Amino acid sequence: MGDLARSWWLLLIRGAAAIIFGILALIWPRMTLLVLVIFFGAYALVSGVSELIAGLRHGARARSRTWLIVSGIIGILAGIAALIWPGITSLALLYVVAFWAIFTGIAEIVAGVQLRKVIDNEWMFIVGGILSVIFGVLLIVWPGAGMLSLVWLIGVFAILYGIAMIALSLRVKNFTPGAGVP
Asked: So where does this one cross the membrane (predicted)?
């Protein structure tokens, strides 16, 4: 805890950076989405190249080596696609979230109906599932608004996270090693 107290200012900087990022995401949501897609593309490209190299240099069995090579090639292709076509990449991500929400919601509805025999208030599980399905369908129907709302959620999260980090930094700044220890 003493090390954390001595480096309290790092938490403060981290919190301030998160708040600035969050505000910028709310002010410029389209630019934020583009930057996030470009970062994803760069990450996928670097990850793919490292997996490909590992697969080519890997001395293990042919099957694990093949998976590393295939995974590396897919990562490289995904990274290139994200950098060349950022709009399509962001739309594909939105559809992944939408279909995940729909399938998860259906599973929750089914589980809630089956739980009716076992527990009370299973309706909350069913309502959660219905809301998840509605969310997924809305993302499919209005993808532009869905992408914008995801960026807004990221922005709000970053601001709240930044506030928490700043509060933590000020709290640990005042920590005295040995205080409260009998």
From this structure: 7-28, 34-54, 66-85, 91-111, 123-144, 150-170
Indicate the pLDDT class of residue 139, thresholds 50, 70 and 90: confident
Query: d(Cα 116, Cα 150) in Å, to the nearest integer?
Result: 34
Report which residue type is found at 69: I
Distance between CA atoms of residues 29 and 169, nearest Å: 28
* CA distances, 153 to each of 37, 42, 88, 108, 146 (Å): 16, 23, 20, 23, 10
Q: Which two tokens stand for residue 117?
A: 């025999």
Distance, in Å, from the CA atom of 72 to the CA atom of 67, rounded to the nearest integer, reads 8
Query: Cβ distance 125 to 111 under 8 Å?
Result: yes
Average pLDDT, the chain: 82
Whether residue 11 is predicted with pLDDT greater than 70 in this model: the reply is yes
Q: Quick one: tokens of 93?
A: 């991500």
Contact 68, 54 (CB under 8 A): yes
For the entire predicted model, the pTM comes to 0.58
